[in-house]
Structures are given as structure tokens and as C-alpha cells.
Amino acid sequence: MRLTDLAPRYDLIVIGGGITGAGIFREAARAGVSVLLVEARDFASGTSSWSSKLVHGGLRYLQTGEWRLTAESVRERQRLLREAPDLVERLDFLLPSYRGVKPSRGLVRLGLWLYDRFARDAQARSQSVDIAASLAIAPQLNTHNLLGALQYQDARTDDCRLVWRLIEQGMRDGGTALNYVRAEQLLQAQGRTCGAVLRDAETGEMRETAATVVINASGVWAEGLQGQGIAAPRLRPLRGSHLVYPHTRLPLPCAVSFFHPRDRRPVFAYPWQGATLIGTTDLDHREDLWNPRMTRSEADYLLEAFDWLMPAVGLRLDEALSSFAGVRAIIDDGDGKPSSASRESAQWSAPGFIGITGGKLTTFRVTARQVLVQAAKQLPALRLAAEQAPLFDQPRQESPALAPTAQQMQARAGEEVHHLDDLLLRRSRAGLVLPDFGESLIEPALMACRSTLGWDEARCLSEASNYRSHMHQQHSVPD
Ligand SMILES: Cc1cc2nc3c(=O)[nH]c(=O)nc-3n(C[C@H](O)[C@H](O)[C@H](O)COP(=O)(O)OP(=O)(O)OC[C@H]3O[C@@H](n4cnc5c(N)ncnc54)[C@H](O)[C@@H]3O)c2cc1C
User: Whose alpha carbon is nearest atom 19 of ligand 1?
Assistant: First the structure.
């Protein structure tokens, strides 16, 4: 379906196909209203593909006093583990403790005790282990001043698959979702928002579509869509970057999390899709919001941490498979270190309009329901599904831990793919976790696009060339 096939009017238009928009779309589609979601590029191509991919309470939010957010996140983690076992998996963490290193072992234990209370899950209970047990799990650990370690559990996901599956579920429940369609501006009449001007990014075609309520869930771009009486909060974009290594270079059986020796920020490494992910940084992003890149100093910062924690490994930058960077929408409180800035979401509204930005991947379901409770005040036909209603009809044969394969390409080419990077970088994560940006899967991916999407030879050649140059520009390891 494209712009020309749209109905002239919807009850709800959701702008932005990241986790926030996808969560709202999924809940709205089963709430008895007509809903249209538009995404300017590919689904999940914004911040939601570049997160750390942890469905977690966030131990560090306890450090910054965000208890409510931590408790809510842990509850949501538990729920997703139950309801989406193919998308969200348990992940064991090892947090080594060192003499003289802050925060102290006692303080971290206290944080984990709270974590356990919030989760009420015997399987996820944290515990202390001694030096020998710590080294049996991660023999690469620096032994100087090592006191032992704390073990706890969180969960990992594939952020892009999570977004896609919410959108797919919403479409199955009657919603309409279009990628590569941008909301250019809001339509307004008689002091209220009454729709949006939409533009097909592929054909340039424009169309006005009416709606009773428009929801702006465009993340870090949210300030861009303004209108009469709409006062979006001022945002402070913060960038976080990651490096991806071959698993053989950093073969960890679980996640390892620790505090950076330079500034005591939490950093981590964990096995993901057959590779090892290490992250993350946290700094003000003043460059282009659409194409964030990891810088050399961020890469050096991460390597410095691992040189300290695992000196014998001797991790080198040129051994990394890829890098990626994402930008958080943080509400600008005017001051403070990036890592102390609140990760809570912000909502604002006006007649016919609701804006939502910030927050976490983990809490998308709660955010979606809060936004729709507001929307229902302007749209009485909207009846939210019961709080206990499961998110998905049924689980699939997927796992965020497994490496991408050629077989995945055939089925996933039919998942609203428009370009080769949609398939190799988001429907599958081959571009990030396989050597040479997934070069070995380009041919199988193109074959799938030939048979499913009817691409001819010329289209295949230009898609492959665009994909390679995009990967070099955005995801190569910084010089
Ligand atoms: C480095 C980093 C690590 C993180 N790690 C975690 C983690 O481990 N766990 C966790 O829970 N959270 C994590 N987060 C937070 C989480 O990733 C974000 O809160 C979440 O992805 C934001 O989703 P969103 O849908 O609001 O924004 P986005 O994903 O950015 O979606 C907004 C979408 O709107 C689209 N758009 C913009 N303008 C328009 C327009 N005019 N018309 C149509 N579409 C438009 C964009 O293309 C984009 O796709 C992390 C964030 C970062 C940056």
C-alpha cells in the first residue's frame, strides 16, 4: 500500500516508526479505532536500531535516583520475557568488583538487592561469587585487586525485530503502516490539529490526510513538527556509540558490566547475534541527527575500559567488525553531565495533538498506553485492550542471540523492505555482525529481493553499491 491507497481520514495518525510509534500503533490497532503510522525512512531506522539492545531495569538509573523508572523497567522486562520469549531473552551479567574502585561492592549489592525486589523472580536473583568462580566465568579478567564479582540477570533483544514485530502485529489487527513516508507538516483548522501533510520519500507525491488526533512520536526529531498552541520541550540530543567484535576475539559466555576507570560510567560487553557488542558512550551530539557516527575518541574511550578490565586480551580497534551510534532524545534541563540527565519520557498536548519523546526501549508498552489514555480523552471510541492482554498473538522461531543466515533473507524480504539496507541492516543485522558488513549475504539477499520484490539486474547493482557505501560511511570503525 502507498499514499494513493490511503483513506482520506483516520481516527489516529502516528508519526514515527521507532519503538515509541510502533508500540502506540500496536495498542491503537486493537483499540477499536482506525490508525495510520508513517515513518520517514525505514521502520526502526532512527534511535531504535542503535540502542544497546538491553531490556533492562538499568542499574545506573538507581545511581541517578530514578527509582520509579527502574522499578517500571524491571516489571516490563519480566513481562516481555514471559510474552515475547522469541524477541527478549534472559542475559546473565557478571559485574567484577575491585578493591578501591567506586562504586563499592557494598553499594552495588544494595542496588542489586533492590533490583531483585522489583523483579520478584527467583530465577533472576543476584548473588556474589568469589575470585575463583569469577575467573572460571571470565578468565580474561584483570586479577589485580580483584575481590570477586556480582552476578545478576537482565535481558537482551534485537531492537529492530521488536519494532518490526509490533508494526506487523498492528497491521494484522487492521492498522496501516507506511515506511518511507514523511509527515511534512501538521494540518490545523479552528485552533486544533486535524491531520498531516504526508510525502512519499520515494516518489515525491504529497497528500493531506485528516485525523481526529495526531501523535508525534518522532523521537529526537520531535521539535521539527510544530503548530499553533503546540509547545514541544527543548531537547538535548545525547549520542551513545558501540563497537562490534567477532565473538572469537572476545569470547564471553555472558555479559560483563563494570565501571569505566576514567569516569565511573557503566560500560559492558555481551554476546549478541554471534558477535560481541561493547558499549557505550554518552555525550552531547551537535552534528547531523540523521546520520550519527562513532568518533575515534569514543572508540578510544571504550578500548581504554577493556584494556583495564581485560589487559591480556589486547583488543585492537582494527579488529572490530563495525561500529554504530544512536542519539537519545533527552529533555534539556539546562545543565548537568550527560549521564546524570533523566531518561524519563516527556509528553505534551494540544487540541487534536499529542507529542511524546524520550524514554526507554524497555518501557515502550507503558508509554504507549499512557499516550493512548490521553488520546482517548479526544477520541472516545478508543478503548484500550485490558492491561493483561498479551502483546503478540504468538511467538516465532527467532532469537536475538543467533547469528544471521542466508535462509532468513527470503522470508524477511517480504517485510516491507524497500532497499537492501532495510533487509541486511534492520530486518536482519547481518551488516553489523558479519565480516565485511555481511558481504557473504548480499547475493542471497538480492536473490530474495529479485523473487519477492521483482528487482531487476540494474536495481540489484545500484542497491548493492548504495549499501556498501552506506556501510562504509556510517558503520566502519573510526580512523
Ligand atoms: C546509545 C543508546 C543506547 C540505548 N540503549 C538502550 C537500552 O539498552 N535499553 C533501553 O531500554 N533503551 C535504550 N536506549 C533508549 C532507546 O533506544 C530510545 O528510547 C528509543 O529507541 C527511542 O525510540 P523512539 O521511537 O522514541 O525514537 P526513534 O527510534 O528515533 O523513532 C523516531 C522515528 O521518527 C521518524 N521520523 C522523524 N521525523 C519524522 C517525520 N517528520 N515523519 C515521519 N517519521 C519521522 C524517524 O525516522 C525515526 O525512525 C538507548 C538509546 C541510545 C541512544
Answer: 360
